[in-house]
Amino acid sequence: QVQLVESGGGLVQAGGSLRLSCAASGSIFKTSAMGWYRQAPGKQRELVASTTIVGSTNYADSVKGRFTISRDNAKNTMYLEMNSLKPEDTAVYYCAARPLSLARYNYWGQGTQVTVSS
């Protein structure tokens, strides 16, 4: 059974930084693209950043230059380094896994709250 567990969320002032982690159990991590999504109140869930198995990355325009996604395949863990945080970054952040055999993200964590105060 695949489990994804996020950690590292919290309350931070605008301009501050947070580092999110996503620990994956099972054997799926090394054969999956991984992504960070977020969902703010009243808004649709959006893909913030993603990384392929070999570490290629993509970012939403709203976070380019401020967020950095990375993965450690030896530790089955993915990270999201968030700098220069803005109040509009406030959301529940979810990690997700997309196995090679699938066309969509199929496994999700429970989410971690990030709140940025102005």
Mean pLDDT score, rounded? 95
Largest sheet: 7 strands, mixed
Quaternary state reads single chain
Report the portion of residues in β strands.
over 45%
Poorly predicted spans: none
Structure, explained:
- Strands 2, 4, 5, 6, 9, 10 and 11 form a 7-stranded mixed sheet that branches. A 4-stranded antiparallel sheet has the order 1-3-8-7, with no helix packed on it.
- The chain has strands at residues 3-7, 10-13, 18-25, 32-39, 46-51, 57-59, 67-72, 77-82, 91-99, 107-108, 112-117.
- Helices cover 0% and strands 53% of the residues.
For this entry, give a set of tags.
globular; 118 residues; four-stranded antiparallel beta sheet; single chain; seven-stranded mixed beta sheet; 11 strands; mainly beta
Quick rundown:
With 118 residues, the protein is mainly β. The chain has strands at residues 3-7, 10-13, 18-25, 32-39, 46-51, 57-59, 67-72, 77-82, 91-99, 107-108, 112-117. The strands form 2 sheets. Strands 2, 4, 5, 6, 9, 10 and 11 form a 7-stranded mixed beta sheet that branches. The chain has a 4-stranded antiparallel beta sheet with strand order 1-3-8-7, with no helix packed on it.
Write the layout of secondary structure elements.
Blueprint: E1 3-7, E2 10-13, E3 18-25, E4 32-39, E5 46-51, E6 57-59, E7 67-72, E8 77-82, E9 91-99, E10 107-108, E11 112-117
Parallel strand pairs: 2-11
Antiparallel strand pairs: 1-3, 3-8, 4-5, 4-9, 5-6, 7-8, 9-10, 9-11
